[in-house]
Design goal:
By secondary structure, this protein is mainly α. Helix content is 67%, strand content 11%. Strands 1-3-2 form a 3-stranded antiparallel beta sheet. It is globular, with a radius of gyration of 20 Å.
């Protein structure tokens, strides 16, 4: 058996962390899906993500929505079409340039986002309440470092899925 090297140990450590993050991600996606389904079982996770983007950024042009979601403009257009039909968002001419359309949340869309987020927060709170205080503090530090390394804004600056 060969002696372990720092590089091999670092790789194994990174693999263990990656596995743990993937497991936590699966759990969080499940919580998100359950929270959405409890409020409106016709809304998909990608559609909810679009609603959250509009909630956080305000009215946007279709190209900005596509960029924020990392999808092509035709995909964003189809998502917008479906959510306009459900009454969760509106699509109006841009007051600054009547040739462009601006998409925004309706009161119904805003209420849906608030209700889903409230439900998801309660589910997560139930889980973290079962952890020891030390484990919760360590989790806060670890998740802060993880999100910072991934380029995400600090908590409160954005509300994604």
């Amino acid at each position: 058996m060969s002696p372990s090297t720092p590089a091999r140990e670092a790789g194994a450590d990174a693999d263990a962390v990656t596995d743990a993050v993937l497991a936590a991600s699966r759990m969080l996606m499940g919580l998100s899906a359950r929270s959405i389904a409890a409020v409106d079982d016709t809304i998909t996770l990608p559609q909810f993500r679009l609603l959250v983007v509009l909630d956080g950024r305000g009215p946007l042009k279709l190209t900005a929505i596509a960029g924020a979601l990392g999808v092509n403009p035709s995909t964003a257009t189809r998502m917008v079409d479906r959510l306009v039909t459900t009454g969760r968002i509106s699509r109006e001419p841009n007051p600054a340039s009547r040739r462009e359309l601006v998409v925004d949340l309706t009161a119904s869309g805003r209420a849906l986002v608030r209700d889903v987020m409230r439900r998801r927060r309660a589910l997560i709170n139930r889980i973290v309440s079962g952890m020891t205080p030390t484990a919760r503090r360590n989790l806060v530090r670890a998740l802060g470092a993880f999100t910072a390394a991934g380029g995400e804004p600090p908590n409160g600056a954005a509300t994604w899925l």
